[in-house]
Amino acid sequence: MPELRKDPITGRWVIIATERAKRPSDFAREAVVSRNGHFCPFCPGNELKTPPEILAYRNGGGANQPGWQVRVVPNKFPALRVEGELSREGAGMYDRISGVGAHEVLIETPEHGQTLSTMDEKRVADLFWAFRDRVLDLKKDVRLRYILLFKNHGEAAGASLEHPHSQLIALPVVPKRVQEELEGSRRHWKHKERCIYCDILHEEIHDHSRVILESDHFLVIAPYAARFPFECWILPKLHHSHVESISPPAIQNLGGVLQKTLRKLDRTLELPPYNFIVHTAPVQEPAMPYYHWHIEVIPKLTRVAGFEWGSGFHINPTPPEEAAMYLREGTP
Amino acid sequence: MPELRKDPITGRWVIIATERAKRPSDFAREAVVSRNGHFCPFCPGNELKTPPEILAYRNGGGANQPGWQVRVVPNKFPALRVEGELSREGAGMYDRISGVGAHEVLIETPEHGQTLSTMDEKRVADLFWAFRDRVLDLKKDVRLRYILLFKNHGEAAGASLEHPHSQLIALPVVPKRVQEELEGSRRHWKHKERCIYCDILHEEIHDHSRVILESDHFLVIAPYAARFPFECWILPKLHHSHVESISPPAIQNLGGVLQKTLRKLDRTLELPPYNFIVHTAPVQEPAMPYYHWHIEVIPKLTRVAGFEWGSGFHINPTPPEEAAMYLREGTP
Fold this sequence. Notes:
- The first copy, chain A, folds into 2 domains: 3-29 and 40-171, HIT family, subunit A (2-Layer Sandwich), CATH 3.30.428.10; 176-329, HIT-like (HIT family, subunit A), CATH 3.30.428.
- Chain A is 30% helix and 23% strand.
- Chain A has 7 helices and 15 strands.
- In chain A, helix 2 (121-138) crosses helix 5.
């Protein structure tokens, strides 16, 4: 069973894969396989090549048959498993938890050659409907404290399969970066009795130099202290700490906003690899006045130097005001 | 002038390059240049192609002439500059500091084709002598709070030039990851009145399953909650919070320990790209009983998926006990 281990100094949790552990020679082999894949397990007709589906939106066909628009299946090589006891134990001076959780794949479209930026915006919205459905289901399991939704697009961004898909990881711990955001925004609330993300929305709409696009329900900005060139944040205008509180009209609107944002990145940066990640509050906690869910989109343009990993310190070669200007003006 | 910006939520500082800002088309162009470089500005005879040297250890020759063994020069495209006022100011709701600091390159050997793992261990030690000399000089500038020493080895790890070199960045702020280590180790000290790194040394020597090598002055381990496969930490056995407190015999010993560690990585993982980074206490602070300087070495074996960036949450496919076993046994 995989396990979670806690760094005793910083308190960061890490998943250690103990079962299908990679040996030195596996790292080279992997690269070759991902380059030469012909067969696609996510294409219609190959439904039996994935574990049985957990959820599907369909126009026709039965479970695990073609006819779906969006399909959610367990990851075939999960980082965590739903089965098993959640046990916390010491290991010498260290702490660990059994690797209980969920790891699912959201197949975004039956069409292999599409991307979120070429798909119809209603289909992009379906991804968030499916995510919301999965969060509402998974949060019933009180062992699960946090649900991450993320996408790796392109090989350089970590995607091992080309067919458009996102991933969901449900964890028995809260990731460090989320903890930092919760602490930082709680500090601001204590001081000002305002949500810091609501303050950022207000400031950015007023200032306008970092605005990429604005819709009824969302503001897309290049954040003031962007870590990466052309990093974008999608902020909902209405305050909710949890993504699953999003209203149906806002979900529909988000489909178009994400599609347009990715289309702008595609045009400005020539189809870059990218990642996005939904930042939301821990699922077992009540609504918070100080935290505000949002999406961070990071195009993979530079090789990240190790010192940025090691230090948590970033050098961003493109001022966010310039990034916003290019993206704002490169109209979709 | 470059500037430092603070993320208002997490408090993380970022360098924003405002002068030589990269436009969208620069990202593609850059990749091509780094692949086809023929001329090497770091090779002997080309000393005038770098800014004038700050420090050199030589067998002969005058300043900025051949005859050096190690040579330290300002980075030609610095992320920060020593000139200018250190000004702190608000920008709407945000905070920024002018980009005052230093960015230097430590050229590790005159021989273009060498690496730290093929060089004589005395020459590897020279890198740390030079780093110590530079820290002792730079810390006189009280605007500088932190000095990062790091190395990017190989293109995939962020190196833009092949000739062996490390880099030093002196900052007017303390990087987030270091702050976290300082806070975490201070917490342990309050609770136990012991240094957590000294505890880790004790635990790892006793347990032995994660030990990669041990010398008179250092222990090299695969850390318990390693974020990356084959991540290695080099821990000095003697407690010092600041790397510049290292004794001359320990510097000599470190040359051999780093060389052997890199040689083990080279043999086990077939010459992987890697990064290392020296973690040390902020230069203007007095010696701390709770913090312990050390070096983290990270081979670049997997593409880091964006969700790891976004969440601070890592999945490591190789248990550190197995990584240590391969590295321990693959004798240099």
